[in-house]
Recover the amino acids of this structure.
């Protein structure tokens, strides 16, 4: 079934099991950069395309520990030919590159999707993201059966590697089954992994008709695309055993029993093993595929094909049964050198294309040599190292002839010579150890001297500022360990507080190398900001001075200096950025400016006769001082004899401001021109309650009423008005001033009170 490139698999309904704890299992622990993560612990999928973008809160699997192991083993065998680690370890998943990993969630939470046994997005293995887009196995839809859960998991993971379904069609090219159900029964009953193989023993990768059309042939691996080994996904494992007599792995049959193993990783892979017989001997070869058991070979993928040859490449014996998976061959040997080959076979139900996987060899023989010697080798020798050659023997040799062949040939007659391996490669070690009474066969052993990984650390910011992080990324190997911290993974994000040396030890299998990088931390520093004052009156200035760094920028203004004179008009925040090298820090300084205020000043008259008294009234501040005279009150009475400018200084919250007014003193002998002004006006009642009446005597000019704060709250232009009534019902109780101005801008002021 196809839905937005989503594929879901066949469903089965059965019964349930119980919960279990998590296990840490790794199929290929040396592979860290590609991971299939079997997640049995529950998962919350957010930020994905699943469930129309809504979160999926998946419950943990109900599988027991024993069933988890069975599931993991089956999936491991399906992916054994490829360079990927099948694991239950979340740390392995988290440390793998985001575009080289897939999470398979095993859960009974399936209602959000439907009745499928599992579902995956096509090609999602390399989509990336954190934690990425998982695929799903719905165990409740699979009867909680461990085989069905494993089959579904391998199938859904196949989709993430771009595989579509293997389908069946009739001779008219009409699809008869979306999921190829396979054929046969018993041990060799077969179905493709990308079909449906819940009832078949052999479920393998295959080549066949894709669900796209009957003319579209899908190679599950080894093709161009799609496929497991298409670009950006997985690769075949490197061949572990040569396929010819010249490249065969050497076996020493100097004892009665020998065990070995190997992997058939591609359809063309053939593994060859060479041995030497000193006398007449009968030898049996029993080769079995990996399986969960050795009766029904449950879970096996490899059908063994065995062939035995002499040194002239003449076929001596073969076992290619079409009805069983293992081989058993016995042969009577005469002295000489022989070899046998193992590769994937076929049956009447399937070809050898998908016959891949691990095998185990058991060799038994009679009539071993009188003195049997076995070379003991160190399997972890790396280039540039030396090793002492050792052996075991069932006798007491007194003569030794060692030969080491590789990039150079070295010989020794010492019992335990020390050999220097200067370069990587395959070395053949032979030993003929005997004494005067006992002969022996030559013992031969091959060793693979590994190369030291050429590691480097790239993309490193080696100098950081305090409390910052640096990203350390190593390459050139498969496994990495970082110290201090004992962290794994090729990338580490570190945040040292002081300059620190970081050592990464990297390995490719058994060989490791180390490299050191230094993350330097610039000295910590603190920016200090001092000001000559932190509280100003409007119009005042202060000096701001910064210290603690090498250079400074002060904002607003972008002033590059450690000191600046400021004239803030309102409360302001200044940001100081200090630099030491390439490290920067910022701090803020708030300068508080008290609110601005205005001192208001009015006079009862601005034009008077010499010596006539007038009132000066100031408002808007708390205290007042008048000059000339130095009088201190908000209302004063003065009797100027000459024209005078009066200045009042007001203070509020320790800040001061001023205002001034000009009083004109005239010669009263000519004041008849101003009789209109000098004629007084009357106010009544005073004090007032609801209204005030102003008797103007038909004057012209204007009337203003001013409150004690100096604000004009009433204004009226006059045109011969006799009586002016002002409604006071909504006015606040207090002192008010009536200011009359005539057409010549002469002023007369009177005070009244509202009770």
């Amino acid at each position: 079934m196809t839905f937005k490139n989503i594929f879901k698999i066949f469903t089965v309904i059965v019964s349930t099991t119980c919960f279990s704890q998590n296990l840490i299992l790794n199929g290929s622990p040396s592979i860290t950069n590609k991971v299939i993560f079997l997640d049995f612990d529950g998962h919350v999928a957010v930020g994905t395309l699943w469930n129309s973008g809504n979160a999926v809160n998946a419950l943990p699997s109900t599988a027991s520990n024993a069933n988890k192991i069975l599931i993991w083993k089956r999936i491991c065998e399906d992916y054994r030919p490829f360079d990927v680690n099948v694991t239950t370890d979340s740390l392995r998943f988290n440390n793998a590159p985001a575009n080289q990993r897939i999470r398979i969630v095993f859960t009974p939470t399936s209602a959000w999707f439907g009745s499928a046994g599992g579902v995956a997005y096509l090609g999602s293995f390399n989509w990336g993201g954190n934690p990425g887009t998982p695929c799903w196995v719905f165990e409740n839809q699979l009867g909680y059966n461990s085989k069905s859960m494993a089959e579904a998991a391998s199938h859904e993971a196949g989709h993430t590697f771009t595989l579509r379904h293997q389908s069946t069609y009739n001779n008219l090219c009409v699809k008869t089954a979306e999921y190829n159900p396979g054929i046969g029964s018993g041990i060799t009953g077969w179905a493709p992994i990308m079909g449906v193989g819940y009832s078949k023993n052999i479920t393998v990768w295959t080549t066949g008709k894709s669900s796209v059309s009957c003319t579209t042939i899908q190679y599950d691996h080894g093709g161009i695309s799609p496929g497991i080994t298409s670009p950006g996904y997985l690769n075949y494992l490197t061949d572990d055993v040569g396929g010819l007599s010249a490249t065969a792995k050497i076996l020493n049959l100097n004892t009665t029993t020998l065990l070995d193993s190997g992997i058939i990783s591609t359809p063309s892979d053939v593994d060859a093993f060479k041995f030497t017989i000193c006398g007449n001997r009968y030898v049996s070869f029993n080769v079995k595929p990996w399986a969960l058991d050795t009766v029904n070979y449950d879970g096996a993928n490899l059908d063994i094909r065995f062939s035995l040859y002499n040194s002239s490449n003449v076929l001596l014996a073969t076992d290619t049964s079409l009805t069983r998976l293992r081989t058993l061959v016995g042969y009577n040997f005469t002295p000489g050198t022989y070899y046998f080959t193992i590769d994937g076979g076929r049956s009447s139900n399937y070809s050898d294309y998908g016959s891949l996987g691990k095998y185990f060899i058991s060799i038994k023989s009679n009539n071993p040599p009188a003195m049997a010697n076995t070379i003991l080798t160190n399997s972890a020798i790396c280039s540039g190292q030396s090793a002492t050659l050792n052996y075991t023997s069932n006798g007491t040799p007194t003569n030794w002839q060692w030969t080491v062949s590789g990039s150079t040939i070295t010989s020794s007659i010492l019992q335990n010579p020390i050999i220097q391996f200067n370069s990587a490669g395959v070395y053949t070690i032979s030993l003929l150890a005997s004494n005067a009474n006992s002969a022996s066969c030559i013992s031969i052993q091959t060793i693979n001297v590994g190369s030291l990984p050429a590691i480097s650390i790239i993309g490193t910011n080696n100098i950081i500022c305090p409390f910052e992080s640096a990203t350390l990324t190593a390459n050139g190997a498969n496994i990495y360990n970082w110290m201090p911290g004992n962290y794994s993974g090729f990338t580490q994000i570190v945040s040292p507080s002081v300059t620190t040396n970081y050592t990464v030890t990297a390995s490719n299998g058994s060989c490791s190398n180390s490299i050191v990088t230094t993350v330097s931390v610039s000295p910590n520093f603190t920016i200090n900001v001092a000001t000559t004052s932190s509280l100003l009156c409007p119009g005042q200035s202060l000096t701001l001075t910064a210290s603690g760094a090498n250079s400074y920028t002060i904002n607003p203004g972008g002033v590059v200096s450690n000191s600046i004179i400021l004239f803030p008009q309102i409360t302001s925040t200044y940001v100081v950025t200090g630099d030491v090298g390439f490290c920067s820090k910022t701090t803020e300084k708030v300068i508080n400016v008290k609110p601005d205020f205005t001192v208001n000043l009015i006079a009862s008259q601005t034009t008077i006769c010499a010596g006539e008294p007038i009132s000066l009234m100031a408002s808007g501040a708390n205290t007042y001082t008048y000059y000339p005279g130095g009088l201190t009150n908000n209302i004063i009475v003065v009797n100027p004899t000459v024209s005078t400018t009066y200045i009042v200084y007001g203070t509020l919250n320790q800040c001061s401001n001023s205002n001034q007014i000009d009083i004109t003193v005239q010669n009263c002998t000519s004041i008849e021109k101003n009789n209109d002004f000098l004629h007084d006006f009357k106010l009544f009642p005073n004090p007032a309650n609801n209204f005030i009446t102003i008797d103007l005597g038909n004057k012209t000019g204007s009337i203003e009423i001013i409150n004690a704060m100096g604000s004009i709250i009433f204004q009226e232009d006059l045109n011969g008005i006799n009586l002016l009534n002002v409604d006071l019902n909504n006015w606040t109780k207090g002192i008010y001033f009536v200011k009359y101005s005539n057409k010549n801008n002469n002023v007369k002021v009177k005070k009244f009170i509202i009770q």
